Amino acid sequence: MHELAIAQSIVALAEQQAQNRHAAAIEEVELEIGVLAGVDVKALDFAMKSSVKGTLMENARIVRHDIAGEGRCGDCANVFPVNRLFENCPACGSYAVNILKGKELRMKSIVMATIGLQP
Asked: How many domains does the structure of the chain reveal?
């Protein structure tokens, strides 16, 4: 289950950024996950619940944006929705399809609560 490793990496990256900025907690993490990224989002959600325990992300809200797949045919330049990695062009039948969107797996933003600094 590589979703656990992904969840742990998300938590580690968010915590590193929070610590670099002397944040007291992480309030929200926004993720973009493409439908072609090979991530089981239910398994990732489950893994995130256990990965955040005892971290700055423990009470954070996780916002996930699912990115639809999109491809462009290398033969006829048709742009069309793609639901799997090896899909042929609906216009000409070619398998020379370049994936434009849908393979993303990124942390888009982190909202942190800062520690009140004394002057």
From this structure: 1
Quickly list DSSP for 65-89: EEEPPEEEETTT--EEE-SSSS---
Is 107 part of a structural domain of the chain?
Answer: yes
Q: Is residue 119 part of a domain?
A: no
pLDDT of 119: 45
Q: Which domain holds residue 90?
A: 2-114
Place of tokens 């590193």: 16
Question: What CATH number is associated with residue 16?
Answer: 3.30.2320.80
Radius of gyration of the chain from its Cα atoms, rounded to whole angstroms? 19
Please give the C-alpha separations between residue 7 and each of 4, 14, 21, 71, 98, in angstroms, as whole numbers: 5, 11, 21, 28, 28
pLDDT band, very low/low/confident/very high, at 114 (cuts 50, 70, 90): confident
76, 91 contact by CB (below 8 A): yes
Q: Could you tell me if 105 and 10 are in contact, meaning their C-beta atoms sit under 8 angstroms apart? A: no
